[in-house]
Amino acid sequence: MKLGFAIRQVRMQLGMNQSELAERCSITQTSLSQIERGNKNPSQKTLDKICKELEVPVSLLYVLGMTEEDVPMCRRAIYRQLFPSMMSLMKELIYEVEEEFAMAG
Fold first, then answer.
1. What is the pLDDT of residues 34-56, one digit of tens each?
2. From CA 45, how far away is CA 35, in angstroms rounded?
3. What global pTM score does this model have?
4. Rg (CA), the chain
5. Which of 4, 70, 71, 85 could be disulfide-bonded to 38 (CB atoms 3.0-4.6 Å)?
6. From CA 48, how far away is CA 14, in angstroms rounded?
7. How far apart are CA 30 and CA 87, in angstroms?
8. 57 phi, psi to nearest 5 deg
9. Residue ranges of the domains in the chain?
10. Of 48 and 86, which is predicted with more confidence?
11. What architecture does CATH give domain 3-104?
């Protein structure tokens, strides 16, 4: 699971820098950097704050952060078939949030 990578991906898509997101979430930029690099797992409270500020559901980050290794071997063929469509849908959701950010800012 690459949850930190997913957070970074969404943050960057929205045009937000680490310092800005960290400040909004009341965490240090160093802490957010460690989360995004996968060196630290966010607490549920921190993850909820991040999702609130990114305006995305936690489930979206889990889907974006999913890797084939997270899926049992017996389900990987299905994963390979469905994951590209799931990623496309998730990116559309992020794009909608990005448009809302642009209109608000």
1. 999 999 999 999 999 999 999 99
2. 13
3. 0.80
4. 14
5. 4
6. 17
7. 28
8. -75, 150
9. 3-104
10. 48
11. Orthogonal Bundle (1.10)
